Amino acid sequence: MSDSSLWERWRTIHKTANPLPDAPLDFISKWMLITRSYVFELDVYPGMIGILLALQFVHSSYSANLELGCSWVWAGIPCVLSEASRIIYYDGLIIIIGLMLAHASNNMINDFFDTLHGVDTEGYPRTQYGPHALIDNLISKNGLILAIFVCNVIDLLIAVYFYQKIGPEILYFVFAGLAISIFYVAKPIRLKNIGLGEFAIGLVYGPLMVGGTFMALTGESFGSQTLNNAFLVSIPFGLTVMTMIMGKHMDKYEADTAKPVHTLPVMIGMSWASKVSQATIVLFFIFSLLSVMQGHYAMAIVIFAMPRAMYVIKKFNEPVPDTQKEAFDIAFEVLPPHLKEKVIEKDMKDIFPVWPLWYVAWAFHFVKIAGATFVLGLIIDTLFVLEIIRL
After folding, report:
1. What's the rounded Cα separation, in Å, for the pair 154 and 195?
2. Which tens digit of pLDDT belongs to each residue from 299-317?
3. 39-293 under CATH 2.30.230, yes or no
4. What pTM did the predictor assign?
5. How many Å apart are CA 40 and CA 37, to the nearest integer?
6. H helices, E strands: number in the chain
7. Where in the chain are the domains?
8. What are the Cα distances from residue 81, in Å, to 10, 31, 52, 58, 347?
9. Maximum distance among all alpha carbons in the chain?
């Protein structure tokens, strides 16, 4: 029995989508696996984008009427203390929590319906790269349904809160997101099975999450120039997440072809799927440039993500390795440092953490730096707008 710390167990799940070998499965570890919390960081980015755009909007619109105070803390980090800004911070945190709960619900819905429809079975890639909530008996069907229900009830309460604050328009975002979450895998639509799942996820992580966050924090209505600008700024991150889903479905190509599950890669073939994935990476930079041209000049910092983008584009041209050992040898350089140390120490060089996933691992490798540089650029841009940084 492993005497590993709880922190090490949780960090291993977060980094590899798998529990630490031989370690007991504690309560939090189990729920991290059931909800697939290791991808929740994706929800923070669109939430932050919406929050930052809302801060810019509030300052630009009401700077003449608001007292925008600034308190400089010991390290010289500025903090905007206006009442409007504080409300955005608090409400923004509520929104990010809601986005994570929605993601957790979506992951559990996927496991439930894909098991119900016979997609997730023993030997299918979903059951190989990480424990499956139902197939690996982490939870009962009734327990999973209850967990989905609880997540959606909390999200509904959050939706009601913002409905009371800004009106019914926010519900369009709420119900659009819920519909995509359910009918991504549920009959009669099953977006994933008609080649639309990839586009749907890009829509969710772009315009729906960012636009919804911006509307919830500002009250701006459909058709307003500021909301349209938020939609435009949201597109790059939505494209990066679409790249991840394309990679994931490319990894499942053979299994999905046999089922059949008509994901976009199955419908257009692996060669074209690679081209589409590479195109979404390129489009990330093109749409980021449009944001720069709109006046968000600091977002040009995304240029620092380009070397990794070129590396990942190259990987999408290469075939999947035949064995875990070969995959590990190729990917060793990009593994987290603590995993490198563990692998070397325990001579685990024949174990690739998320096997048989391959393309999605490289896509996520790009998303991490793309999302980070994009948000960092927007943070710097916001500091200029708030006049905390001045040239």
Report:
1. 31
2. 999 999 999 999 999 999 9
3. no
4. 0.90
5. 5
6. 17, 2
7. 39-293
8. 35, 37, 15, 13, 53
9. 64
